[in-house]
Amino acid sequence: MSSKIQLHELGDFLELPLNAVLATYLPDGEALLSPVWFEWRDGSFHIITYKDVKYRNLKRDPRASILVFENGGINRGIEVRGEVQLDTGNIDEILQRIVKRYLRAEDRDRYAQLLEGVELAHIRLEPGKLRVWDHADDEMYPVGGEQDVKIMKAIRVHKYGGPDELKYERAPRPVPQAGEVLVRVLASGVNPVDWKMRQGLVQAFFSLQFPYIPGGDLAGIVEEVGPGVTGFQKGQKVYGYTAINGKQGSYAEYTTVPASSLALMPAALSFLDAASIPTGAATAWQGLFDYGKLQAGQRVLVLGAAGGVGSFVVQLAHLKGAYVLATASSENQDYVRSLGADEVIDYTKVPPEEITGSITDAVDLIFDAVGGKTAEQSVRVLRRGGTLVSAVSQPAPELMEEHGTQGIFFLATITSEILQAIAALIDEGSVQTPRTTVFPLQEVRQAHELSAKAHGGGRIVLQIADEHALSRDVEQE
């Protein structure tokens, strides 16, 4: 048994020293009546809990059993192997020592009251294999490996709502499955879809299981590869996109990523810059080339050119040899021109319905990264047979039909092939990364608030870990 025992209770992971007390409190400050104490003493692992704790055999493995702690329909358990002894001997001394030593002073009296009239049991476990189990959808399932459960710090969302639902807490470290790579995350991009998911605005597109970890874009270091994965090895610097559907996102110290959505980082970039790329670059690439079928010499209008998507659209269209028209605010005019735009329209000087009024020659393709009235009004400068692609909203079919144009709404698929192509362009100096605004992971609420304001100033990135300190850790491993 290690000197630190990591255990799970009611969704909260804690690192417990040799002797510890675990008390769980609800958000309103009320204590749950399920006190459980864990103690490593005299060569045995001790659990002190309610006398009527359930002891359940596991059908899948007759050598193992599970202790299930129930309260209000919530089940949590610890799987044990080896001899289990249940006795109700003298445990007052143990309880007093634990309560006095480990509870905060302001909690001692309140928690001590919970012990009055409660009949407790002392369960002694001889050293053996230990694994934590969780409960969901009326099923118990393991959430960690044998003995120590690996944990990490993460942002989790337990229910739909505002920024306050972003909880900085401990969570189980994921294990890579077939076709996946476990990445030690150093930076995570923040996309508008992140706060929309948190608020429950895109339930039609994403299936979530609470609690879930938000985030998709990431940059980090390969920690482990799952079965069947080739082309990646521990220690490599990578960037990519993790599948948000389900529970596991990138706002965490570790995440699993499909190998098909991962690539080696551009050599010259920091992790913060690399994390700003995947969704924006892949959206621009697929919108221009896969859906828009952009060709050299064509005219393309980019709505929202200074943002995390639009900045890539301008650069890729310019590299393709297109004539690029773009919309941007007054302060972003020079920036968008530096990306390769031939004409830049200041959308702050005119109403949305007049933004495209200065365009005299029709365009072949419109890339919409803003939506709303601007996108609707822009259709009148699109040639008949032209295409409007949008990563924001579905173009109105009747409007497209009226102008003899095609409207396409799409959600990007981030692939290794696109990420590799973008990395090559960045390394050769043909493409630059978006401007970034960086927040530490603990300030994720502020990051979401800024993203929801549609600030149009590039990308927002969460710093999960200091890359210089972490680089030293990696070198020592």
Automatic annotation (TrEMBL):
InterPro entries linked to this entry? ADH-like_N, ER, GroES-like_sf, NAD(P)-bd_dom_sf, Pyridox_Oxase_N, Split_barrel_FMN-bd, YIM1/Zinc_Alcohol_DH_Fams
The cross-references to SMART domains, in alphabetical order and at most eight, read: PKS_ER
Residue limits of the Enoyl reductase (ER) domain? 161-462
The molecular function terms of the Gene Ontology recorded here are: oxidoreductase activity
Query: What CDD domains has UniProt attached to this entry?
Result: MDR_like_2
Q: Which domain of life is it from?
A: Bacteria
**One Pfam family name from the record?**
ADH_N
This one is known as Enoyl reductase (ER) domain-containing protein
Organism this protein belongs to? Thermosporothrix sp. COM3
